[in-house]
């Protein structure tokens, strides 16, 4: 089932963005990763759960949280 | 046994450095992490192996290699 998970991830530069993109692209089930660096918004689409996406991004060492509603 | 592992890690800003420091500080056995951002040099001291340190840093999504001799 396709889910969309939106996170706020502490990213400061293109290197930060690249690292987050790399760990998410390596995650099973992920189909699409959209990142907007200025707003630190990361949108992940795929056969994934919110918890699994949060844990994967946390492994990158970046501070992360669900996008504030 | 205390080992010292020296890596070159692609880091561009303080956020990159912080992420690498965070994943290494969470790694079992690590006693000390020294990072020089301008030279992208990371020196890890502790009861660790070269392979395990490389794998841990790779999980951060940063490109990494052993420091060129």
Fraction of residues in helix of chain A:
25-40%
Compute the number of structural domains of chain A: 1
Distance between the termini of chain A: 23 Å
CATH fold naming of chain A:
Alpha-Beta Plaits
- The dominant shape of chain A is globular
Low-confidence stretches of chain A: none
Please outline the major beta sheet of chain A.
4 strands, antiparallel
Q: In the CATH hierarchy, what is the class of chain A? A: Alpha Beta
Tally of individual helices of chain A: 2
Average pLDDT metric of chain A: 96
What does the oligomeric state look like here? homodimer
CATH architecture of chain A: 2-Layer Sandwich
Biggest interface pair, counts = A-B, 17 and 17 residues
Strand order across the largest sheet of chain A: 2-3-1-4
What structural class do helix, strand and pairing data of chain A support?
alpha+beta
Short account of what is shown:
By secondary structure, the first copy, chain A, is an alpha+beta fold. Helix content of chain A is 32%, strand content 33%.
Q: What do you see in this structure?
A:
- 2 copies of one chain form a homodimer.
- By secondary structure, the first copy, chain A, is an alpha+beta fold.
- Chain A has one domain (3-66): 2-Layer Sandwich (Alpha-Beta Plaits).
- The first copy, chain A, is built from 2 helices and 4 strands; from the N terminus they run βαββαβ.
- Chain A has helices at 14-25, 50-59; strands at residues 3-9, 30-36, 41-46, 64-66.
- The first copy, chain A, has a 4-stranded antiparallel β-sheet with strand order 2-3-1-4, with helices on one face.
- In chain A, a hairpin with a 4-residue loop joins strand 2 and strand 3.
- The longest helix of chain A is centred in the first third of the chain and has 12 residues, at 14-25.
- The N and C termini of chain A lie far apart (23 Å).
- The mean pLDDT of chain A is 96.
- The A-B interface holds A 10-16, 18-23, 59-62 and B 10-16, 18-23, 59-62.
- Chains A, B: Residues 2-65 form the HMA domain.
- Chains A, B: Keywords: Metal-binding.
- Chains A, B: This is HMA domain-containing protein.
- Chains A, B: GO terms for molecular function: metal ion binding.
- Chains A, B: Pfam families: HMA.
């Amino acid at each position: 089932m396709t889910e969309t998970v939106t996170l706020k991830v502490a990213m400061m530069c293109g290197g930060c963005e690249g690292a987050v993109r790399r760990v998410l692209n390596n995650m099973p089930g992920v189909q699409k990763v959209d990142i907007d660096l200025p707003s630190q918004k990361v949108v992940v689409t795929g056969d994934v759960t919110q918890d699994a996406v949060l844990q994967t991004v946390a492994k990158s060492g970046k501070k992360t949280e669900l996008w504030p509603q």
